[in-house]
Design a protein that fits this description.
The structure holds 2 protein chains of 2 kinds. By secondary structure, chain A is of the alpha+beta class. The relative contact order of chain A is 0.22. The longest helix of chain B has 28 residues. The radius of gyration of chain B is 18 Å and the shape is elongated.
Chain lengths: ~100, ~130
């Protein structure tokens, strides 16, 4: 559960999850929708995968991400968005250092 | 996740049977009100429904490796799970707080409505052509 809270604490990751609610998307499509570098986006995907909030499926050269949340996790996602949880945190690349 | 395996489900079922036996014994001894054992067992059934509904939107790692039958199925499954969670909560709360004459109808109505809503959403998703 700790991984889930960590994943939901970042606004970019929450936006990725919101985008995936509409349906599965490729890593490229998702990365293009956010004003962050590809390595940063890749780190965000890794955090989401580790928390089990998304599943990745290989489709040729691209990776397709699917939303994989329980009802409770979806509710937490909504709450975190409403209360702006972790809106001032640094991106994952900087957290790793 | 406990609700996604046969072993987990058996543990839950055993827990439910043990709770029912304990409550029946407590009721027989006069430790709790005669209606209370029935109310608590039904509330437990509602809680188990909430657990299963919660897990429904999430695919286990082995399932996640398989492609979805339809792109919209994930959203339909999440909706079905939410409907079951709400149905389970209404089931549990109605058995805990509503008069006994109403509790049965309220709880069954909520669960049947949740099932119908979930199944309707799945049927609508499958009827839509995949993009």
């Amino acid at each position: 559960m700790n991984d889930v809270f960590k994943a939901l604490a970042d606004p970019t990751r929450r936006q990725v999850l919101q985008a995936l609610k509409a349906g599965p998307q490729s890593a490229g499509q998702l990365a293009a929708a956010f004003p962050v570098s590809k390595p940063t986006m890749s780190a965000h995907f890794a955090v989401l995968r580790q928390a089990g909030l998304v599943t990745a499926e290989k489709d040729g050269k691209s990776v397709i991400y699917h939303l994989n949340v329980s009802v409770l996790e979806e509710a937490l996602l909504g709450f975190a968005g409403v209360f702006g949880l972790g809106d001032g945190v640094s991106p994952p690349q900087e957290e790793e250092k | 996740m406990i609700t996604r395996s046969v072993k987990g489900s058996l543990v839950l079922a055993t827990g439910l049977v043990l709770a029912a036996l304990t409550l029946a014994y407590a009721s027989g001894q006069g430790w709790i009100d005669t209606d209370m054992d029935k109310r608590l067992v039904q509330a437990l059934i509602g809680a188990i429904l909430v657990l299963f509904g919660n897990a429904m939107g999430k695919r286990a790692p082995d399932e996640a490796a398989r492609p979805e039958p339809h792109p919209g199925m994930s959203a339909a499954r999440r909706f079905f799970g939410l409907a079951l969670v709400v149905g389970g909560l209404v089931h549990a709360l109605s058995w805990l707080f509503a008069p006994l004459s109403m509790a049965n109808w309220l709880s069954m109505g909520a669960v049947v409505l949740a099932m119908l809503a979930g199944l309707a959403r799945v049927a609508m998703t499958l009827r839509k052509p995949a993009d």
